[in-house]
Design goal:
This protein has helices at about 5-15, 20-30, 55-65, 90-105, 115, 120-140, 150-155, 155-170; strands spanning about 1-5, 35, 70, 145-150, 170. It has one domain (about 1-175): Rossmann fold (3-Layer(aba) Sandwich). It is an alpha/beta fold. The longest helix is centred in the last third of the chain and has 21 residues, at about 120-140. It has a 5-stranded parallel sheet with strand order 3-2-1-4-5. The termini are close together. The protein is globular, with a radius of gyration of 15 Å. The chain is built from 8 helices and 5 strands.
Length: about 180
């Protein structure tokens, strides 16, 4: 089974929670091929994981025992993605990203980062949305089978069904595998 881990799973492993232990069990199962998206979620900023510090992302993955997992590259987004670990999008890629965003965050407010900055509350919310969208984008684009997440926004029935129709397959919490 091809499984995309969202960043909440990585953070749960890093924090050694019961969910993190379950994620390790899933990753250790030889029947599973697990993937991580090359993007630094807003929660990772406290570890210094920033677009110009990919090495800190790798350090975090080594510390969690997840460094051996295959990486998926998201779309290039200034101040968000690691420049040497992303893809430059064409129209179809951007269209898929917009559809995912419309499903996950249908009423999200536009954020003017030039005014609020990425480290403000609104900037962090925006960054979190972008990371969620790009993680699902990578999952769908790479045709993985299971999207593993603790984020309930992905598993809301109406959203889950729409994402599944786009190719997301199964979306589940680590306890559900």
């Amino acid at each position: 089974m091809k499984i995309t881990l969202d960043h909440n799973c990585i953070i749960a492993v890093e924090n050694k929670t019961t969910v993190g232990i379950k994620v390790h069990v899933i990753v250790s199962d030889a029947a599973n091929e697990c993937f991580i998206v090359n993007i630094g979620a807003s929660e990772m900023r406290k570890y210094g994981v920033l677009p110009d510090h990919y090495e800190k992302f790798e350090k975090l993955l080594r510390a969690t025992g997840l460094a051996h997992l295959v990486r998926l590259d998201p779309m290039a987004i200034y101040d968000v993605t690691f420049w040497d670990h992303c893809v430059y999008a064409d129209d179809e890629m951007e269209k898929l990203s917009r559809k995912i965003e419309e499903i996950l965050f249908p009423s999200a407010a536009v954020v003017d980062l030039s005014k609020v900055g990425l480290d403000s509350a609104n900037g962090r919310k925006w960054l979190n949305r972008v990371c969620d969208v790009q993680t699902m984008w990578c999952h769908i684009r790479n045709q993985n089978d299971v999207f593993l997440t603790t984020d309930r926004n992905f598993s809301k029935e109406t959203k889950r069904l729409k994402l599944a129709a786009m190719g997301a397959g199964r979306i589940c919490h680590p306890d559900e595998i």
